[in-house]
Amino acid sequence: xxxxxxxGGLVQPGGxxxxxxxxxxxxxxxxxxxxxxxxxxxxxEAVSCISGRDQVTYYADSVxxxxxxxxxxxxxxxxxxxxxxxxxxxxxxxxxxxxxxxCVDTYGSTYRGRENAIDYWGKGTLVTVSS
Length: 131
Hints:
By secondary structure, the chain is mainly β. Helix content is 0%, strand content 49%.
């Protein structure tokens, strides 16, 4: 299994980025996919999840209205569009895969994913928001 994230970089506050994650080695559309992040000196935080086939989306409260997750099952790729970036969004962003085809640890539209519920982790891509 491989999860290869890309698209990170340095961006000014208020700017945008799009992260991509190319997946291989498993039946992509049977897995829910998501993103976690880890800010310097902090623990990992669940950011967003998208279910396998029906592509229902969930977000952490801290990113709702600013980030958008999507997936292309034909390309085995999941995306995270980051808009209106803030310095507190600075973190390493990890692409993750869960063998449950529906997102778990959801509360209404909020995603509070647990690390131990994740089957596969990518290596991460660094997003730095700074002027």
